[in-house]
Amino acid sequence: MLKKFRGFLTMLWECFTMSVRNIWSNKVRSALTILGIFIGVTAVIALITTMSGFSGSITSSFAGMGAGTLTVSVTGNELKTGLQP
């Protein structure tokens, strides 16, 4: 059991060192990837914040107009039921 665990740790360490070596050998690619992730996360946060602000603004506008009630009015011809030939 201990031998399998040591083998697992050795394999994990090799994967880690290989990953770090690849990141350092491709510095420009790594920097562009980090920049892309940063821009994407920032865009999502900005979008969520903007939508939250708009939602609050619209809610307060409706509350100011007395949006607690709903009024439906029908104008025009009389309402008829059934099919007309």
Could you give the topology of this structure?
Elements lengths: L1 H24 L1 H38 L21
Q: Write down the secondary-structure element order.
A: HH
User: Which stretches are low in confidence, meaning pLDDT under 50 for 5 or more residues running?
Assistant: none
Major β-sheet profile:
none
Outline, from the CA principal axes? elongated
Number of strands: 0
- How many distinct helices? 2
Radius of gyration: 31 Å
Specify the structural class.
mainly alpha
Helix percentage range: over 70%
Distance between the termini: 86 Å
What fraction of residues sit in β-strands?
A: under 5%
Mean pLDDT: 83
Structure overview:
With 85 residues, this protein is mainly alpha-helical. 73% of the residues lie in helices and 0% in strands. The protein has helices at residues 2-25, 27-64. The N and C termini lie far apart (86 Å). The mean pLDDT is 83.
Q: Keyphrases for this structure?
A:
85 residues, mainly alpha, elongated
Give a short overview.
This protein has 85 residues and is an all-alpha fold.
